[in-house]
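Example 3.
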Amino acid sequence: MPSNEIQPLLLRVADGDAGALAELYDATAVFVFGILRRMLWNTESAEEVAQGVYIQVWKTARGYDPGRGSAWSWLALLTRGRAMDRMRADGSYRDAIADLALHQPDPIDPAGPPRSDAAHIQRAETVREALRAMPGDQRRALELAFFGGLTQREIAFRIDTPLPTVKTRIRTALTRLRERVASVPQA
Amino acid sequence: MIRPAVMSDDQFEDHAIGHLLRELDERGEIAFQEELARRGAPGHATLRELREALGQLALAVAPAEPPAALRARVLWSIGAPVAAPDAPPAAPRTFWIWAAAALMAAAAVGLGVWAARLADERDELRGDLEIVSDAEATVHDLRGTTALPDASARVFFSGAGRGVLLAEGLPALAADRVYALWTMDAAGAHPNGVFRPDGDGRGRLDLVDLELAPGAILAVTEEPAPGGRRPTGRTLLRSS
Protein backbone atom coordinates (compact mmCIF):
# COMPACT_ATOMS: atom_id res chain seq x y z
CA MET A 1 0.00 0.00 0.00
CA PRO A 2 2.08 2.96 1.11
CA SER A 3 4.23 3.21 -1.95
CA ASN A 4 3.67 4.58 -5.40
CA GLU A 5 -0.09 4.32 -5.43
CA ILE A 6 -0.65 7.01 -2.84
CA GLN A 7 1.20 9.56 -4.94
CA PRO A 8 -1.85 10.43 -7.08
CA LEU A 9 -3.86 10.88 -3.89
CA LEU A 10 -1.28 13.21 -2.43
CA LEU A 11 -1.20 15.26 -5.62
CA ARG A 12 -5.00 15.56 -5.50
CA VAL A 13 -4.77 16.66 -1.88
CA ALA A 14 -2.31 19.32 -3.01
CA ASP A 15 -5.05 20.60 -5.30
CA GLY A 16 -7.40 20.98 -2.35
CA ASP A 17 -9.39 17.77 -2.89
CA ALA A 18 -10.81 16.87 0.52
CA GLY A 19 -12.09 13.55 -0.83
CA ALA A 20 -8.53 12.62 -1.75
CA LEU A 21 -7.45 13.28 1.83
CA ALA A 22 -10.15 10.88 3.00
CA GLU A 23 -8.82 8.25 0.58
CA LEU A 24 -5.26 8.92 1.66
CA TYR A 25 -6.31 8.52 5.26
CA ASP A 26 -7.99 5.20 4.50
CA ALA A 27 -4.89 3.96 2.69
CA THR A 28 -2.29 5.04 5.24
CA ALA A 29 -3.83 5.56 8.67
CA VAL A 30 -2.91 2.13 10.05
CA PHE A 31 0.73 2.71 9.11
CA VAL A 32 0.86 6.31 10.32
CA PHE A 33 -0.81 5.31 13.57
CA GLY A 34 1.57 2.38 13.91
CA ILE A 35 4.57 4.70 13.65
CA LEU A 36 3.07 7.05 16.22
CA ARG A 37 2.21 4.24 18.62
CA ARG A 38 5.76 3.00 18.31
CA MET A 39 7.31 6.41 18.92
CA LEU A 40 4.93 7.85 21.50
CA TRP A 41 3.88 4.78 23.44
CA ASN A 42 0.60 6.39 24.26
CA THR A 43 -2.62 5.93 22.35
CA GLU A 44 -4.00 9.32 23.30
CA SER A 45 -0.88 11.17 22.20
CA ALA A 46 -0.66 9.09 19.05
CA GLU A 47 -4.26 9.94 18.21
CA GLU A 48 -3.72 13.63 18.76
CA VAL A 49 -0.52 13.70 16.73
CA ALA A 50 -2.11 11.62 13.96
CA GLN A 51 -4.79 14.25 13.58
CA GLY A 52 -2.05 16.86 13.33
CA VAL A 53 -0.25 14.77 10.70
CA TYR A 54 -3.21 14.71 8.35
CA ILE A 55 -3.98 18.38 8.91
CA GLN A 56 -0.37 19.13 8.01
CA VAL A 57 -0.69 16.91 4.94
CA TRP A 58 -3.74 18.93 3.95
CA LYS A 59 -1.87 22.19 4.37
CA THR A 60 1.54 21.28 3.00
CA ALA A 61 0.89 18.69 0.29
CA ARG A 62 1.67 21.36 -2.29
CA GLY A 63 5.26 21.19 -1.06
CA TYR A 64 5.58 17.53 -2.00
CA ASP A 65 7.91 17.05 -4.95
CA PRO A 66 7.68 13.58 -6.58
CA GLY A 67 11.17 14.11 -7.93
CA ARG A 68 12.61 14.06 -4.44
CA GLY A 69 11.09 10.80 -3.27
CA SER A 70 8.02 8.66 -2.91
CA ALA A 71 4.82 9.90 -1.37
CA TRP A 72 5.11 7.30 1.38
CA SER A 73 8.60 8.43 2.40
CA TRP A 74 7.33 12.01 2.46
CA LEU A 75 4.42 11.00 4.70
CA ALA A 76 6.50 8.70 6.91
CA LEU A 77 9.12 11.37 7.60
CA LEU A 78 6.42 13.99 8.14
CA THR A 79 4.82 11.63 10.67
CA ARG A 80 8.12 11.04 12.41
CA GLY A 81 8.70 14.79 12.51
CA ARG A 82 5.37 15.44 14.21
CA ALA A 83 6.12 12.71 16.72
CA MET A 84 9.55 14.22 17.32
CA ASP A 85 7.94 17.60 18.01
CA ARG A 86 5.76 15.97 20.64
CA MET A 87 8.65 14.08 22.15
CA ARG A 88 10.89 17.13 22.26
CA ALA A 89 8.15 19.17 23.87
CA ASP A 90 8.26 16.90 26.87
CA GLY A 91 11.77 16.01 27.90
CA SER A 92 10.89 13.65 30.70
CA TYR A 93 8.49 11.76 28.51
CA ARG A 94 11.19 11.52 25.92
CA ASP A 95 13.61 10.09 28.45
CA ALA A 96 11.06 7.45 29.33
CA ILE A 97 10.64 6.60 25.68
CA ALA A 98 14.36 6.34 25.16
CA ASP A 99 14.68 4.03 28.14
CA LEU A 100 11.93 1.87 26.77
CA ALA A 101 13.57 1.91 23.38
CA LEU A 102 16.86 0.83 24.86
CA HIS A 103 15.31 -2.09 26.67
CA GLN A 104 12.75 -3.13 24.15
CA PRO A 105 13.80 -6.43 22.62
CA ASP A 106 12.14 -6.20 19.25
CA PRO A 107 10.12 -3.35 17.72
CA ILE A 108 9.42 -5.33 14.59
CA ASP A 109 5.88 -6.37 13.99
CA PRO A 110 5.97 -10.14 14.26
CA ALA A 111 2.57 -10.74 12.75
CA GLY A 112 2.58 -8.38 9.79
CA PRO A 113 0.06 -5.73 8.92
CA PRO A 114 -3.61 -6.28 9.76
CA ARG A 115 -4.73 -5.38 6.29
CA SER A 116 -2.65 -4.84 3.23
CA ASP A 117 -1.88 -6.04 -0.23
CA ALA A 118 0.70 -8.58 -1.29
CA ALA A 119 3.19 -6.00 -2.52
CA HIS A 120 3.14 -4.16 0.76
CA ILE A 121 3.49 -7.38 2.74
CA GLN A 122 6.50 -8.30 0.65
CA ARG A 123 8.12 -4.92 1.12
CA ALA A 124 7.45 -4.79 4.86
CA GLU A 125 8.81 -8.29 5.27
CA THR A 126 11.93 -7.32 3.29
CA VAL A 127 12.51 -4.45 5.69
CA ARG A 128 12.06 -6.74 8.68
CA GLU A 129 14.42 -9.32 7.21
CA ALA A 130 16.99 -6.63 6.55
CA LEU A 131 16.74 -5.47 10.16
CA ARG A 132 16.98 -9.00 11.51
CA ALA A 133 20.07 -9.63 9.39
CA MET A 134 21.88 -6.59 10.74
CA PRO A 135 24.38 -6.79 13.55
CA GLY A 136 22.56 -5.91 16.76
CA ASP A 137 24.53 -2.75 17.43
CA GLN A 138 23.75 -1.36 13.97
CA ARG A 139 20.09 -2.16 14.23
CA ARG A 140 19.80 -0.71 17.72
CA ALA A 141 21.48 2.54 16.68
CA LEU A 142 19.19 2.90 13.67
CA GLU A 143 16.05 2.19 15.69
CA LEU A 144 17.06 4.58 18.47
CA ALA A 145 17.64 7.29 15.90
CA PHE A 146 14.44 6.80 13.93
CA PHE A 147 11.89 5.52 16.43
CA GLY A 148 13.50 6.61 19.69
CA GLY A 149 13.92 10.15 18.45
CA LEU A 150 17.44 10.43 19.82
CA THR A 151 20.17 12.34 18.08
CA GLN A 152 23.28 10.41 17.18
CA ARG A 153 25.14 12.30 19.91
CA GLU A 154 22.49 11.28 22.46
CA ILE A 155 22.71 7.68 21.32
CA ALA A 156 26.48 7.76 21.76
CA PHE A 157 26.03 9.03 25.31
CA ARG A 158 23.32 6.55 26.21
CA ILE A 159 25.08 3.47 24.95
CA ASP A 160 28.52 4.76 25.97
CA THR A 161 29.98 4.51 22.50
CA PRO A 162 32.07 7.07 20.58
CA LEU A 163 30.02 9.32 18.31
CA PRO A 164 31.93 8.38 15.13
CA THR A 165 31.16 4.74 15.85
CA VAL A 166 27.47 5.49 16.22
CA LYS A 167 27.46 7.43 12.96
CA THR A 168 29.19 4.57 11.18
CA ARG A 169 26.69 2.06 12.56
CA ILE A 170 23.70 4.10 11.43
CA ARG A 171 25.17 4.84 8.03
CA THR A 172 26.08 1.21 7.47
CA ALA A 173 22.68 0.01 8.66
CA LEU A 174 20.87 2.41 6.40
CA THR A 175 23.06 1.47 3.44
CA ARG A 176 22.23 -2.19 3.96
CA LEU A 177 18.57 -1.39 4.30
CA ARG A 178 18.41 0.67 1.13
CA GLU A 179 20.26 -2.02 -0.82
CA ARG A 180 17.79 -4.64 0.33
CA VAL A 181 14.74 -2.49 -0.24
CA ALA A 182 15.97 -1.41 -3.68
CA SER A 183 15.88 -5.04 -4.76
CA VAL A 184 12.12 -5.20 -4.13
CA PRO A 185 9.95 -3.70 -6.86
CA GLN A 186 7.60 -0.88 -5.96
CA ALA A 187 3.99 -1.94 -5.71
CA MET B 1 29.11 22.62 -13.47
CA ILE B 2 29.67 20.44 -10.42
CA ARG B 3 32.15 22.00 -8.01
CA PRO B 4 34.67 19.82 -6.16
CA ALA B 5 33.27 18.20 -3.04
CA VAL B 6 34.77 19.12 0.30
CA MET B 7 33.22 16.28 2.29
CA SER B 8 34.11 12.63 1.93
CA ASP B 9 31.28 10.38 0.79
CA ASP B 10 30.87 9.08 4.34
CA GLN B 11 30.75 12.60 5.75
CA PHE B 12 28.19 13.59 3.15
CA GLU B 13 26.01 10.59 3.97
CA ASP B 14 26.30 11.32 7.69
CA HIS B 15 25.12 14.87 7.04
CA ALA B 16 22.34 13.64 4.77
CA ILE B 17 21.12 11.26 7.47
CA GLY B 18 21.30 14.03 10.03
CA HIS B 19 19.35 16.29 7.68
CA LEU B 20 16.61 13.69 7.16
CA LEU B 21 16.42 12.92 10.88
CA ARG B 22 16.25 16.66 11.63
CA GLU B 23 19.23 16.69 13.93
CA LEU B 24 21.63 19.02 12.16
CA ASP B 25 22.29 22.35 13.81
CA GLU B 26 22.31 25.50 11.71
CA ARG B 27 25.97 25.19 10.79
CA GLY B 28 25.59 21.53 9.93
CA GLU B 29 22.56 22.21 7.77
CA ILE B 30 24.34 24.98 5.89
CA ALA B 31 27.37 22.75 5.34
CA PHE B 32 25.12 19.96 4.11
CA GLN B 33 23.20 22.18 1.70
CA GLU B 34 26.43 23.60 0.30
CA GLU B 35 27.84 20.12 -0.20
CA LEU B 36 24.58 18.95 -1.75
CA ALA B 37 24.81 21.81 -4.23
CA ARG B 38 28.42 20.94 -5.01
CA ARG B 39 27.57 17.31 -5.70
CA GLY B 40 24.64 18.07 -7.95
CA ALA B 41 22.53 15.20 -9.26
CA PRO B 42 24.57 12.38 -7.66
CA GLY B 43 24.22 14.06 -4.26
CA HIS B 44 20.47 14.44 -4.71
CA ALA B 45 20.26 10.80 -5.77
CA THR B 46 22.01 9.72 -2.57
CA LEU B 47 19.69 11.90 -0.52
CA ARG B 48 16.69 10.40 -2.24
CA GLU B 49 17.91 6.85 -1.63
CA LEU B 50 18.46 7.58 2.05
CA ARG B 51 15.03 9.20 2.31
CA GLU B 52 13.45 6.14 0.72
CA ALA B 53 15.32 3.80 3.07
CA LEU B 54 14.09 5.73 6.11
CA GLY B 55 10.58 5.75 4.72
CA GLN B 56 10.71 2.00 4.24
CA LEU B 57 12.14 1.56 7.73
CA ALA B 58 8.89 2.98 9.03
CA LEU B 59 7.11 -0.04 7.57
CA ALA B 60 8.89 -2.34 10.00
CA VAL B 61 6.66 -1.39 12.91
CA ALA B 62 3.32 -2.96 13.60
CA PRO B 63 0.48 -1.21 11.80
CA ALA B 64 -2.19 -0.18 14.27
CA GLU B 65 -5.83 0.62 13.76
CA PRO B 66 -6.49 4.20 14.86
CA PRO B 67 -9.64 4.96 16.85
CA ALA B 68 -12.67 4.96 14.59
CA ALA B 69 -13.55 8.56 15.46
CA LEU B 70 -10.18 9.86 14.29
CA ARG B 71 -11.09 9.79 10.61
CA ALA B 72 -14.16 11.94 11.15
CA ARG B 73 -12.17 14.35 13.31
CA VAL B 74 -9.48 14.73 10.63
CA LEU B 75 -12.03 15.43 7.92
CA TRP B 76 -14.02 17.65 10.22
CA SER B 77 -10.87 19.62 11.03
CA ILE B 78 -10.22 20.47 7.39
CA GLY B 79 -13.81 21.44 6.83
CA ALA B 80 -14.79 18.45 4.74
CA PRO B 81 -18.55 18.02 4.50
CA VAL B 82 -18.91 15.29 7.10
CA ALA B 83 -21.08 15.04 10.15
CA ALA B 84 -19.45 16.44 13.26
CA PRO B 85 -17.73 13.68 15.23
CA ASP B 86 -19.65 12.22 18.13
CA ALA B 87 -17.10 13.50 20.57
CA PRO B 88 -15.23 16.38 18.94
CA PRO B 89 -12.16 17.19 20.98
CA ALA B 90 -12.54 20.88 20.40
CA ALA B 91 -15.23 21.50 22.98
CA PRO B 92 -13.53 20.44 26.21
CA ARG B 93 -10.09 21.34 24.91
CA THR B 94 -11.18 24.79 23.88
CA PHE B 95 -12.65 25.52 27.28
CA TRP B 96 -9.52 24.61 29.16
CA ILE B 97 -7.15 26.21 26.69
CA TRP B 98 -9.18 29.38 26.81
CA ALA B 99 -8.90 29.24 30.58
CA ALA B 100 -5.13 29.01 30.31
CA ALA B 101 -5.01 31.69 27.64
CA ALA B 102 -7.13 34.03 29.74
CA LEU B 103 -4.87 33.42 32.68
CA MET B 104 -1.84 34.22 30.61
CA ALA B 105 -3.41 37.39 29.33
CA ALA B 106 -4.44 38.48 32.82
CA ALA B 107 -1.26 37.64 34.64
CA ALA B 108 1.72 35.67 33.55
CA VAL B 109 2.48 34.88 37.17
CA GLY B 110 0.92 31.60 38.14
CA LEU B 111 0.30 30.36 34.64
CA GLY B 112 2.83 27.63 35.09
CA VAL B 113 1.00 26.37 38.15
CA TRP B 114 -2.33 26.41 36.39
CA ALA B 115 -0.85 24.93 33.27
CA ALA B 116 0.62 22.12 35.32
CA ARG B 117 -2.70 21.48 37.03
CA LEU B 118 -4.56 21.50 33.77
CA ALA B 119 -1.99 19.24 32.21
CA ASP B 120 -2.40 16.83 35.07
CA GLU B 121 -6.16 16.85 34.71
CA ARG B 122 -6.28 16.53 30.95
CA ASP B 123 -3.21 14.94 29.49
CA GLU B 124 -4.35 15.61 25.95
CA LEU B 125 -4.16 19.35 26.56
CA ARG B 126 -0.42 19.31 26.76
CA GLY B 127 0.24 20.18 23.17
CA ASP B 128 -1.90 23.30 23.27
CA LEU B 129 -0.70 24.29 26.70
CA GLU B 130 2.86 24.09 25.53
CA ILE B 131 2.03 26.57 22.80
CA VAL B 132 0.06 29.07 24.87
CA SER B 133 2.55 28.93 27.74
CA ASP B 134 5.63 29.09 25.51
CA ALA B 135 7.51 32.19 26.54
CA GLU B 136 8.67 32.69 22.97
CA ALA B 137 5.28 32.20 21.38
CA THR B 138 3.97 35.06 19.28
CA VAL B 139 0.41 36.14 20.05
CA HIS B 140 -1.97 37.87 17.64
CA ASP B 141 -5.35 39.18 18.77
CA LEU B 142 -8.22 39.23 16.31
CA ARG B 143 -11.25 41.42 16.97
CA GLY B 144 -14.72 41.03 15.54
CA THR B 145 -15.61 43.45 12.76
CA THR B 146 -18.96 45.21 12.58
CA ALA B 147 -20.27 42.04 10.98
CA LEU B 148 -19.52 40.06 14.14
CA PRO B 149 -18.73 42.53 16.94
CA ASP B 150 -19.02 40.04 19.80
CA ALA B 151 -16.48 37.60 18.39
CA SER B 152 -12.81 37.53 19.27
CA ALA B 153 -9.86 35.24 18.67
CA ARG B 154 -6.26 34.81 19.60
CA VAL B 155 -3.54 33.08 17.60
CA PHE B 156 -0.58 31.59 19.43
CA PHE B 157 2.42 30.44 17.45
CA SER B 158 5.41 28.81 19.07
CA GLY B 159 8.97 28.91 17.91
CA ALA B 160 8.71 25.17 17.26
CA GLY B 161 6.55 25.84 14.22
CA ARG B 162 3.27 24.87 15.85
CA GLY B 163 0.38 27.13 16.60
CA VAL B 164 -3.25 27.26 17.52
CA LEU B 165 -6.12 29.67 16.92
CA LEU B 166 -8.70 29.99 19.68
CA ALA B 167 -11.88 31.86 18.89
CA GLU B 168 -15.09 32.61 20.77
CA GLY B 169 -18.37 34.34 20.19
CA LEU B 170 -18.90 32.56 16.89
CA PRO B 171 -22.42 31.89 15.61
CA ALA B 172 -23.29 28.30 14.72
CA LEU B 173 -22.91 27.41 11.06
CA ALA B 174 -24.89 25.34 8.60
CA ALA B 175 -23.35 21.94 7.90
CA ASP B 176 -21.93 23.10 4.59
CA ARG B 177 -20.24 26.22 5.95
CA VAL B 178 -16.94 26.73 7.76
CA TYR B 179 -14.89 29.52 9.22
CA ALA B 180 -11.57 30.08 7.48
CA LEU B 181 -8.41 31.75 8.73
CA TRP B 182 -6.38 33.73 6.21
CA THR B 183 -3.08 35.53 6.15
CA MET B 184 -3.45 38.67 4.09
CA ASP B 185 -0.47 40.56 2.76
CA ALA B 186 0.50 42.55 -0.28
CA ALA B 187 0.51 39.39 -2.39
CA GLY B 188 -3.08 38.52 -1.47
CA ALA B 189 -4.83 36.09 0.86
CA HIS B 190 -3.27 32.79 1.91
CA PRO B 191 -5.35 30.02 3.56
CA ASN B 192 -4.38 28.73 6.99
CA GLY B 193 -7.18 26.22 7.53
CA VAL B 194 -10.83 26.03 8.41
CA PHE B 195 -12.77 25.21 11.55
CA ARG B 196 -16.25 24.98 12.97
CA PRO B 197 -17.42 26.31 16.31
CA ASP B 198 -18.59 24.07 19.10
CA GLY B 199 -21.95 24.43 20.77
CA ASP B 200 -20.65 27.28 22.94
CA GLY B 201 -19.46 29.35 20.00
CA ARG B 202 -15.80 28.51 20.51
CA GLY B 203 -13.50 27.42 17.73
CA ARG B 204 -10.05 25.93 17.57
CA LEU B 205 -7.66 25.43 14.66
CA ASP B 206 -4.23 23.79 14.49
CA LEU B 207 -1.70 25.92 12.65
CA VAL B 208 1.38 24.78 10.80
CA ASP B 209 4.15 26.93 9.36
CA LEU B 210 2.33 30.20 9.85
CA GLU B 211 4.37 33.05 8.44
CA LEU B 212 3.41 36.67 8.89
CA ALA B 213 5.26 39.11 6.70
CA PRO B 214 5.63 42.67 8.01
CA GLY B 215 2.34 44.41 7.49
CA ALA B 216 0.39 41.19 7.05
CA ILE B 217 -2.81 40.62 8.98
CA LEU B 218 -4.84 37.60 10.02
CA ALA B 219 -8.51 37.45 9.13
CA VAL B 220 -11.42 35.05 9.56
CA THR B 221 -14.21 34.72 7.03
CA GLU B 222 -17.16 32.37 6.60
CA GLU B 223 -16.81 30.12 3.58
CA PRO B 224 -18.53 27.21 1.86
CA ALA B 225 -17.10 23.88 3.09
CA PRO B 226 -14.48 22.57 2.64
CA GLY B 227 -12.93 25.98 2.11
CA GLY B 228 -11.08 27.35 -0.86
CA ARG B 229 -7.89 29.00 -1.91
CA ARG B 230 -9.31 32.52 -1.84
CA PRO B 231 -11.79 34.17 0.57
CA THR B 232 -15.28 34.75 -0.71
CA GLY B 233 -17.08 35.83 2.47
CA ARG B 234 -17.01 39.00 4.52
CA THR B 235 -14.20 39.50 7.03
CA LEU B 236 -15.62 38.61 10.44
CA LEU B 237 -12.50 38.96 12.57
CA ARG B 238 -9.16 40.54 11.85
CA SER B 239 -5.91 41.38 13.57
CA SER B 240 -4.80 44.98 13.82
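The longest helix of chain A spans residues 18-40. Chain A has two domains: 1-89, 90-187.
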